[in-house]
From TrEMBL:
It comes from the Eukaryota. It comes from Botryotinia fuckeliana (strain T4) (Noble rot fungus). This is Uncharacterized protein.
Length: 130
């Protein structure tokens, strides 16, 4: 397990995974990418300090398993040894949910994905026609 350094100034696969996980959290919940600050009620001057404390303590919101919760959590906590390890777990999750992945990673017939699955996302801004 690798620790994500708050002072890290260079992009690494772990900073990429951390940011990707925050994006996924925002997508499925509609709460934005600053997931680590969920529930924070202080002013803007205290935000960065609170963010640093929560990241250092690895205090992150919990997502349900059906919303990639396990993968998102491991990305936030820096528990992947490589980006490919995260990709492999993401593919396994998608296959478990009934999707098929091609060799190149593309999803087969994703445009025809069942809306029932997408409805598990708790995002009020995600509009589904079905």
């Amino acid at each position: 397990m690798t620790d994500i350094r708050l002072e890290e100034r260079f992009v690494s696969f772990q900073t990429d995974l951390f940011n990707w996980a925050s994006w996924v959290y925002g997508l499925v919940t509609g709460k934005g990418a600053l997931a680590v600050l969920e529930g924070f009620e202080g002013g803007p001057n205290e935000m960065e300090e609170e963010r640093r404390k929560r990241v250092a303590a690895k205090q992150f919101p919990v997502l349900g398993e059906e919303m990639l919760g396990a993968v998102v959590g491991k990305c936030w906590r820096g528990e992947y040894a490589s980006s490919m390890e995260a990709v492999d777990e993401l593919k396994a999750f998608l296959e478990q949910m009934g999707f098929q992945c091609e060799e190149n990673g593309d999803l087969v017939n994703f445009d025809n994905a069942p809306y029932e699955y997408l409805k598990v996302f708790n995002n009020p801004y995600l509009k589904l026609d079905a």
